[in-house]
Structure formats: C-alpha cells, structure tokens
Amino acid sequence: MTYPLLARERRLLDLLASYDRIVLVANSEKTDLDALLSTYSADQTLFVFFGKVQKILTEPFARPAMLIHRLGRQGAINHGRRSVETALALFDKTALKGQVGLQAGKDHRSTNSAANDGDFSAELPFLMNCDPVLNGWYTQGVAPTTGFAAALWLSRHLPEKSIILAGFTGQRSLNLKMLSVHDWTIEQTVLRLEYRMGTISRFEDSGQMAERASIENIAERYPELPPATVAAVYADVLRGQFQATDKVVAHLSRDRWYQRIYNKLASRLGLRRRR
Prior knowledge:
alpha/beta, 2 domains, 8 helices
C-alpha cells in the first residue's frame, strides 16, 4: 500500500534535487569527518546530521548541511528545545539548508494522510514520514533508529541519487549506547543488503577504508563448500555468542538492581553506600 507524499515531504525532495550525493553522518565515534570532507566536493554534496550533533561536531560546520530531528508524540521534537539550540549553534548560518522532522515507529501518532500535514511545528519546514517505508516488516514493539529510517526513505524517494552512510556501524563501544528500543540486528542486515544491491553506499567501504567481511574471507578459504553452508555455520556461532552475552548482561543488570536496593536501604539506615 502506498501513501501520497505530504507537502513538507515534497518540499524536501525539491531541495534535495539540487545535490548529486547525500551523506548521512551518524553521531558515532567511528565517524571520520575530516575524511568525509576531503573525499566529497563541497558544491554537490549535502551532509545530513541527526539530533545531538554536539557528539561529533566541535566547531560550526561550514559545508551544505541538513539537521534531522526525531518527532515524538503530537509532533514534538524528542530531545527538547535546549538541545536543539545547542545543535544549531554548531552550524554556519549559511550552511544549514533546513531542519527536518522525522517520524517513524511507535513514537508518534500516524500521519499517513495529507490532512495531518499541519500538525507539526512551523520551525520544521521539511518532513520525512518513514512509516510507509517501514510498516509491515520492521520488528513489532520497537522503533527504527532515526538514521536507518532516513536512509531507507531517501533511497526509496531518490533512487537516482548517491546515498552514502558514514559511521553507521551498529556496534557497541565504551562511549556508544545501543538502546534496546531498536532492532540493531535487522537494521544492519537490511543495510548490508542495500549495500550489496547498490541502492545505498557505506563510506567505510570506499578507497583505503574498505574492509571485506570476515565471512567472505572464510568462504574463499573453503571453495568446496556452498556459501550457504558457510553462512549457516557463521550464523550458528554468532547465535551462541549472543546467547552468552545476554546471560552476562542479565547478570550485570541483576547486580545493579541489588546495588540500587542496597544503596536505598543504606541511605535510610545511615550505612555506607556501595559504588
């Protein structure tokens, strides 16, 4: 089932039409801004950022850019006005071409008809309604990440453009939180399929940054085995690792719960709190 584009979506597509490539920049420690700026020309590239860009920007960004905000209930921006003001201060006034409200998943009310097009803040002249792209196959009960939803929306509506993702690793690190409200596994699976089909590109796969998947190297080592067999064994090993990790995480979560209870009691009884 298809839905007509809302007026703010059509305005966004008109703006994006003037660029040859669109680079989506994740708020990740893996994002290499210097490499991005040196790789892509200034005049035909639009850099798209998300929400709390202070995680990766330390000074005003001077290249053509766009800022996407996740919309919550009633069309409000999820991360609050103060955070938005902090983010806007990190863009050169002439560089920021617009702000986009993105809706996807269970965090907002449905806006599948043009009648709802006026429900969103006038401060956001552009809109991405990602539900028609995601409904029916994304995992129920969780919401897609903003970057993932934006990437699929762009690839669907601008198939002639070069859509490039930077820093979209989907991997946990010491400084990167991976919230359980998203299905990271299905998102990385879909993105890698999109990479293989050529509908979306990954910056880390270009030039010297390219890195082959380890499973491809294994498949070459055992040419006598069908690729499906290698993939099945690989998936089985990953499943075992995930199960073991889940047990450790559950154990740590239980320990933290006990610690919180102890500290509450200690505060009431005047005992020393645990750290």
